[in-house]
Structure formats: C-alpha cells, structure tokens
C-alpha cells in the first residue's frame, strides 16, 4: 500500500474550552487534488495548522509521507508549502522581493538561487513591478499573491492552501486554479480549503466535508453527488450540514 | 545552516535599518552621562579605586549599554513577530526550535557588541581609557550579551503586550544595573543604609566589577563576575530554548 501524503490519525484538538477537532481521521494520497470543505469554524484551519506546526494536537497524529509532523517537523516542513488563511508577511522592514528571498533562506536555499526563484515567481504572479514595494503599498489581492509565492518558493511536494481565493479577483482566482492544475499534472499533492463549492466540484479529485471538528463524508465529488442524490456539490454540502446540526 | 544564518541576518538587519532608534540613542545617552557626571561632577569625587571618577565610570556605562541593547533586541523582535503573526513563517519552516532561539539571541549579541563599541568610542571623547586586554574584554562582553539576549528572548515570549518589555527594562533591569555599581564602587556606599546591602546582594555589582577588571586586564578579579555571568547565561539560555521547544505563547 502506498503511504499517504497527508494522514490525520484520530486527531483531536481542544482549545481551552472549544473542541475544534474530534477524532478526525483522513488520508490524502500522493498526487491528489484534495478539497477540505466545511462551514466557518468547522476545523479546517486547525487541522491544516497542525501540519505547519502552529497547532499542537491534543490527541492523535499527523503524518506527512509517513513522517510524524510533530516529532520530525524539520523533515516534514521541508515537504510542505503552506499558504495560511490569514495574511502573514514579514513586512516591517523588508520589501516584496526580500520577503521571498528570506523566506527561501529559512528553507535552506542559497541566496543567489533564492533571488532567481523569487524573480521567477514574482513574474509569474504578476508582482514583478511591485518587487521593491513595501507590503503596506500592496492591495489585498497582491498580498495574497505574495503569500502564494512564499508557499511555492521551495518547490514543495505537498501544497496546502487555506482559502487561497478568499478576496481574490476573477483573474487571480483563475491564475491560482491554473497554477494548481499545472502542479497537479506534475504530480504534486494539493490540499486546499474553499467556500466556492462549484470550484471544488470542478477541480478536486476528492473532497472531505467536515463539520464541528468531525468528518462527515469523503469521496470524489461525483460519488458524493450520486450518493446523496444531488446535482451539485453545494447541495450535498448543505444537506449534510443541515442533517449534522439536528 | 543557511536557514540559521538567514534568520540571524534578518535579526541584525532589523535593527541596523532602524539605527536612529536602536543604536544612536544609547550612544548619545552615555555621552551625556560622561558630560554631566564625569566632566562636571567627577572632579569633586576625587579618585576611585585608583583612577579619576570619569575613568571609573567608563566600564559601567559600556556594560549598561550592552545589557540593555542585547536584551531589547530579541525581546522586541520576537514580540513583534508574534504580534504581526510572521513568527508562523519560522515555525512552519525546517528551522529547529533551538536554531530559531539561537539566531534571535545572536542578533541581540551583535546589537549589544555594536552599541557597546560605539559607547566606548564615545567615552573616549571625554576620558582616556585604554583597554589592556581586548580579548578578555570582548569575551566578557560577549558572554554578558548572550546572557541578556537570552533573557530578552524569554521576555519576548512571555509578554502579552509591548508594555511588558518596557516594564521589565525599567523596573527590573535598570534598577539592578544602576544599583550594581555602574556609578559607584562598594566602598563609596559603605555604611549607607539600604543602598549598601542592596548593592552587596545584587549580582550585577559583581558582573560590573568583573567587567571593569576585564577591561583593565585583571584576570583574577574578573573571574568571579565572569563565572557568575556564565552561570546566569546558561540558565537563561536553557530556559529560552525550552520555551521555544514547547511552543510557549507561540503555538496554540
Ligand atoms: N487559537 C484559538 N483559540 C481558541 N479557539 C480557536 C482558536 N482557533 C480556532 N478556534 C476555534 O476552533 C474552531 C475551529 O476553527 P477553525 O479556524 O479551524 O475553523 P475553519 O474551519 O478554518 O473556519 P473558517 O472557514 O471560518 O476559516 C472554531 O470554533 C474556532 O472558534
Ligand atoms: Mg479557516
């Protein structure tokens, strides 16, 4: 059997008094385009942030390519490129280009190479003419582009995007999907969360729907629509969430 | 190693780009102390430990700047990264918890040594003071700045607001430093109630005395302060690394 790219094993997370994840078990296979879906507060960000080392699980494990994401974080972090839901940029004294070069440096990429990679990504993400700008001079969508560039600069095998298209204009949305489809074709694993269910339906090989920290269903969009007897993934989603809350 | 060096460089660039707020003020402040206490009042105090008062002040002033600046750099840098959220970049990188802690601490060491050097140069305008053993002095300064940079790291993790750092600086570090023989020797306060016992139990007194001896090239008398600083530094360093490993105030 193949080792999953990402494996959540009986994951539980309790913040002070909120239970964000309850016994979540989910495998994402290598090369999959995977959508993690669920309403606000379902626990999507919490589960993804355990991979990034920002959230300590209360119970359970997260494995990346079979490696423990908590104990072997130095290896697993190298494999993962993460675009956080919140805009997080080292913006006080670095410009756009420098932010990328430093970020690459944290991943062990030598300065010369990092500069080349930063240039490529800035051109590709249409930020080239903003390369010497301060973050404060960027629009919201431009900041998201920069966040995406950070996630991609060390050429990760597993790309994790937490609501990459929130606040993105049509052009950026299309660009993100196009890039992700290309990475998908190259065999990379892509995990994303989104509230645009028609896009998830169209793009994802498989999706999981979670609510209140529990896994409700997983499968390909077609399977789920068939099983629930619905025309659209969005209707599957609404039905399941409604059933779950009663 | 590249990751570690990148973060170290970031920590140094952060304060260098802001030199007007980080490096210039402590140098000017010390020049003022020299002017007022050294030049204006000093001659009335006569010789202390065999040297004019203005010369006696120099090591204390350098040490004070080193302690303060090596402390402030990690404290503010870390809290800023927590506040802005970009600490997540480091936590999700392949850098280990101890590499992150050490790179940030080393940034503080560099600031402490740069400011310490500039302060020394500034004091030369007012008093002649020659360092007899540069190696000993530098070694001592590095150990001191390591210790207080590690403390700054701890405070930068612990504090829940910007004020916390200023509070520790003004209500803990400054009093300890000022009551630790920067401006006076133990002999000068003998018999003075409150001040003498406070000075005697204050570990900073021995750190300052040791540094003064180190600058004068007196290894034997420098030893006690040196060992004391190393001990203190080890405690702070281990604590800082442990807090980073546990994700204290870093991970939820
Ligand atoms: N740091 C935290 N401290 C306390 N509670 C938290 C924290 N982070 C998240 N929570 C809680 O955990 C639950 C799950 O939050 P999470 O951010 O994982 O949801 P999400 O599925 O990403 O939602 P959204 O679609 O709104 O981004 C929520 O009830 C939230 O209030
Ligand atoms: Mg979220």
Provide keyphrases for this structure:
heterodimer, A: 246 residues, alpha/beta, 4-stranded antiparallel β-sheet, globular, B: 252 residues, mainly alpha, two-stranded antiparallel sheet, 2 strands, binds magnesium ion
Q: Your description of this structure?
A:
The complex is a heterodimer of chains A (246) and B (252). With 246 residues, chain A is of the alpha/beta class. Chain A is 40% helix and 24% strand. Chain A has nine helices and ten strands. Chain A has a six-stranded mixed beta sheet with strand order 6-7-8-3-9-10, sandwiched between helices. A four-stranded antiparallel beta sheet of chain A has the order 2-1-4-5, covered by helices on one side. The longest helix of chain A is centred in the C-terminal third of the chain and has 16 residues, at 170-185. Chain A is globular, with a radius of gyration of 18 Å. Chain B has 252 residues and is mainly α. In chain B, 50% of the residues are buried. Chain B has helices at residues 2-16, 19-22, 24-45, 53-84, 87-91, 97-124, 134-158, 162-178, 195-201, 203-215, 219-246; strands at residues 47-48, 51-52. In chain B, strands 1-2 form a two-stranded antiparallel ribbon. In chain B, helix 3 (24-45) crosses helix 6. The radius of gyration of chain B is 19 Å and the shape is elongated. Chain B has one domain (2-246). The A-B interface holds A 15, 52-56, 73-75, 77-78, 80, 82, 84, 86, 88-94, 102-103, 105-110, 150 and B 1-3, 5-7, 9-10, 13-14, 17-18, 80-81, 84-86, 88-96, 247, 251-252.
